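Blackboard transcription, Thursday session:
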Amino acid sequence: MDVLVSALEILMRWDVILALLVGSVGGVVIGAIPGVGPAVAIAILLPATFSMDPIVGLTTLLGIYGSSMYGGAIPAILINTPGTAVNALTTYDGFPMTTRGEARRALSLAYSASFFGGVFSVICLILFAPTLAKIAPLFGSREIFLAALLGLILVIVVHRGQTLIAAALVCFGIFLNTVGLEPVKYTKRYTFDQSFLSGGIDLIVVVLGLFALSQAFYLLNGDDEKIRLTKLRGGMLQGLRELAKHPRIAAVSGSFGVTMGMIPGVGEFTAQFLSYSYAQRSSKRPEDFGRGSSEGLIASETANNAVPAAAMVPLLALGIPGEALTAMMLSVFYVHNVVPGPQLFANQMDFVVALYIALLILNVLVLVFLIFATNSIINVVKIPNRFLGAIILTLSFVGVYSLRNSMTDCIIAALFGVIGFALKRLSLPVVPIILGMVLGGIMEVKLRAGMARVKEPIDFIDRPIAFILFMMIVGVLILHVRRVLAERREIKAEKFAHKHVSTNFGFYLNNRQTRIMHTRSKSVRRSHLRYSRRDK
Amino acid sequence: MRGDSVEERRFKGPIRGQLIFALLFLALSILLISQLGDQTKWIKKTKFAAQPRLWPMIALTGMVFFTGLHLWRLPRRRILQVDLQEAKRWLQVVEYCVWFIAYVWVVPDLGYLISTLIFLPALAYRAGYKNKKMMTYAACIGFSIVVIFKSFLEVKIPGGAIYELFPNAMRSFFILNF
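(Written on the board underneath:)
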């Protein structure tokens, strides 16, 4: 109870309330504009939050993170274009509802499901916080190293079909983090005797390049789309009533969101996939999924909104960000010399609870805002792409230049912008680079500290949590290898099936043609010979 | 361009440009790993886990190994016209990099407000929005960006050298707010 009171005291400040309002409203608007997304917005705003108190800065960023998915559902439902990447599944059932003339119903249902997911995850985590506070101090250097390693491996294996290049990009991120003056022996690493590289490559510069600048380049290089909006009819509260008819799907999807959000490197996509599959399997009308099913919409929106609160758990309890957005938030902690990890969870529980209550309030604010302002917000989807690209490019300047007023930072960011643009064009992921940078740094420090007290390599996993984490790593790798082998078998079978038909037919035709040609030429030669003999 | 082979059909994402990207990434990785001895140090009487060379070595070995495997598993190993067109597309954005760098270049001289009021409408014009309405929008948005970030959020952007030419009272106001 004392923790709750002191958490409320932290929040009862005008600047925190203002940050909550700005974050929630801003997040909805940003989410509603296809092509911006929370990663771009957080990357741009990050340096601006450095001058604020940690709670104010984090509330603003959390506000954007938590509310952008609400906004992202708007274009996903109305124009079949997800506002943020995680709203892609919403288009499956949201847009068909719009084409049936039920846009208002779909939006209302998406808001209600998102609200339920957000509130459900915060309540789960507030209830779970005392247990976490007991577990967190059991994590020493070895455990944090293994948890970070598990996070990196999960980031790689979740990119199905792209695991090899994702692994290469993770390694690239780890390499980027090693550039500069090494802090223990004070030796230079990959500076090529250039003074600007001695301080290393700043994470925020890379983040801004890969997310904001690359997105600006992508939009400026693309074409504008013609957008036709549907008129909205009906009440906005009907979604809550409809959600109440599917409590099982909402609860299971919320649980998937919370669980997947807490595992570093997994996040919204897996949570959505599992929830959607569960909802479809357990539905009385599975054939409606993908054709405007309310259950499908509930599953996807509940799962993705349950993730942000849960994603803060590894960050706050262990200091390990599980995805790009929490990796950016980690830098807010570092700037203020607040070290997230077991100590924060054990000693500053009120700060942690304050963040969760802020998320809870944020969900209420966003829902109220959307009920009244949806008609106005939907107009932001009309902003032309290339114009939006020009705005993002202008905004990116603030993010990069305000860090250190350095021209070099801007050039490095532009370079990463081009790399990010190429990755985007090839549909390759950029998140592994960011997580490689952040988790690579953590792993280097923790391995050094952990190995200092270890005599034999096997001693590294002699503590229960370290052993469990090690077994989880081994388990994930075994499952991945099994999946790769199964896929290879499938490819082989598919190849064989195709080869069997085409090769035999082609082979037959080819043989037939050769035989005909051979027989024909033989008969021609024979007749020529006959005629030539006659002539003689 | 998607071919008919099973690998090409099952490949995640577009195939065009993948080969060039993988080759460039592998070349970069090999170039960097070849400099490992020069650019990092192995210190005697220091534990393996504390060696400065350890993590660059792990990272670069991983880059070479995984990119090599990725290259080997690519469904197509021949550079076609579409790959070159894709690479050209990557180079096209260098123009916007130049725009961005030019913007960064002029801010310390012209000041944040004036630079933004020139840059955003000019970039919008370049992007094809040549009517008066869009130009006005661009200027208004540029002004709002400056006011929000410099005046309200007080981000660290130095005042422009041009403000030195302003009268005293105006000068400090502009340096602080714009």
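Lecturer's comment: Chain A touches chain B through 73 residues (CB under 8 Å).
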